Amino acid sequence: MFVASLRTTAAIATVFLLLAATFFFLGIGxxxxxxxxxxxxxxxxxxxxxxxWYASFAAxxxxxxxxxxxxxxxxxxx
Length: 78
Description:
The chain is mainly α. The chain has helices spanning 2-5, 10-31, 35-65.
């Protein structure tokens, strides 16, 4: 999903990058019983949620007002 999100906006790509990091840290932490790594994964999960809230709020707000109120920075098309 992260690779596909690189064709959308920076806000969406950030969400999927953080989500991938969250899953990575939670998986490694739980596989090896490392509680501190799991805590890092938890904090990354909270950052993912904040980024997702912003991305969805920006999409709805920008669509409602018909202009850019909250920037999401479109990524370059190749």
